[in-house]
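Work Package 3 (structural annotation) set out to generate three-dimensional models for the target panel prioritized at the project kickoff. During this period the team completed the workflow that converts sequence records into discrete structure tokens, so that structures can be stored uniformly alongside our sequence database. As a representative example, we reproduce one entry of 423 residues exactly as it appears in the project archive.
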Amino acid sequence: MTSQTAPPVAPPPLSSPLRLIGAIAHLGFMAFYGAACFTVLGTLLTTGVGGLAAFGLGVLLLVAMVYALFAAAFLETARVEGLYGFGMPMLRARRSPKGGFVGFLHTIWLQFIDGGMWRAIAHLAIATVLGWIAVALVAALVAAVAAAFAPLYAPPNARVLWDLLPLESGWAPVAGIVVAALALAALIGVALLHGVLARVLIAPIREAQLAAQARDAVNQRHEAIRASDVERSRIERDLHDGVQPRLVSVGMTLGLAQQKIDTDPERAKELVAEAHTSTKAAITELRQLARGIHASVLDDRGLDAALSALASRSHIPVTLDVRMSQRAGRDAEAAVYFAIAESLTNAAKHSRASAARVVVRDRPDAGALWARVEDDGVGGARVIPGGGIDGIQNRIAALGGTARLDSPAGGPTSLEVSVPCAS
């Protein structure tokens, strides 16, 4: 029996009474909130530009302005989504795949040129202007309603309707009703305009995000294929260069022993013993190769225990700092485990490191498993197509994660990975 998912409920149209009332209430709030936002942003911009002479202060203020822009855009997107229900995921801060100070500067630049952020800021500016118009129309509506009841409280010849129209209180109801109708019509028009502009400016953010997700899915598929190719090449290389020659040697040794078993039994025994030793070595290599394909301890005891076993086999001392509140999912744990294993192997073989440190954290709020490996070696590590670090990046990218390598000449070398997990 198959279950069917109910189709999503379409949000109410922009012209529904509840939406119009909500939009008017939002615009009344935006008149003051938007003015405060742009006051803060303008202050950060002018002070930051003016403080560029004092380089540190000015740059810090401009960086703060970029993230203040993102915060304002995030809140504006959340406000529009809460009001109209376009089904948009929230804006996410941009992050550079590069490491170090260059990566930080690249992150700031990526955030500054984020089109979704600027669309939301443009909508915030328009909503602020529409908010002040809505406040003026509400004031006109209240005054017009008060004028409609002027005969109940005003003297016969009193001027009503802000004293702008020289009307006696007897004519005030007619003028009040007309002005109230016009103000209400204009207020509804402003609310509808707000919804239309939200659909034009904010809703395309969702389309852009969906397009980006589609591109990410294609990239993940390509990275998964590359990771499989790299892993297959590694297995073939290990079999061809390690186990296969050893097994060939065992076969040749046993063949020599067979030839000498009648003529030189002592030599035959030596050859059989030699073949036995080589066979045990081949079995050990096969076990290591199998462990490189999949660590069964991951399934049995989790990432912490698997990393402890890995650290105990390492050729250099490893300090482990693993703090996980729960299992992070088989794929995520396997990806992080093999990234750490490859990093420790590289540290022992190539970086001439004397120690390494491994830090692992689960981040339930971000839905990710994060790890960092750092050694005190000579540095200078780089990504070589088909190499170990390339395999790490492919495996992590195939799961939608990120891997950042920072290895300046002279060291230290650090690898930081973050993998989405199913907790």
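Strands lie at 318-323, 356-363, 368-375, 402-406, 413-420.
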